[in-house]
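Case study 2.
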Amino acid sequence: MKRLTSILLALLMLVGMALAEETPDAALGDWYALNTENEAICLTLREDGTFCYDSREGTWRKTTDGEYWLTYNSHDLLAVMERMVNSQAAEQDLTALLTETGFDVYYGSTAKGAVVHMVRDVTELQNARTPKTDTLLEDFAGTWTMESMTLGAMQLTYTPDMGERQVFCTIDGLTMFPGAGLESFPEGTNFPLTFEDGVLHTTIPMQMTEEETLDFDLTFFQTADGSLYATLRLSDVPDNPETMFLLVPMEKE
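Prediction:
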């Protein structure tokens, strides 16, 4: 009887110890995002309080508000000088939030503004951005405005405090009329489009300075979920970064 009691007590102690162990943080492990070139960027949060983000190492901690503060181990000269002269400089370089759909990483000390949306499965993101090849020309027709803009892996989404929405462009058949959200062109300016394999394309000149105007490739495509995207990149320049826009119909007032 004593032996049985001892065994039961030992089992109860083991159960108690197991329950007392902390549940691993749900944010631990690998997270992925895509840049506009469809290349994967990885963030790894380790249990020992360190992280690696796009090959840069640092430390992280979780605040009582549920935010994750990530601080790089090394900084460039400007960041070091700011910390020396500004006692109010933020402790963290990145601020992140665990959401129902993934892990949102913000550059800076607040979870506001441009964000990198990260998920566990990078293949899911790559598939979501794959252009459809059977989109019909009439599916592009209409007046469109920007819902979000992505440069690299950082995404900025429109909010009402940014002011009134601006027209990005109007597409009518094989003609594109640029709006103020794309560039300041004289009224009535339009550009011819080409249509191949479900994708629209045009080249537009954009004035960079008073003396310099550069040509940019502008491409429109739809994805499997029906979303319309536009990509903008400098023409004839290898490895030039691409800007991606998610477009939605411009509501008539």
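Residues 29-127 form a domain with the Lipocalin fold (CATH 2.40.128).
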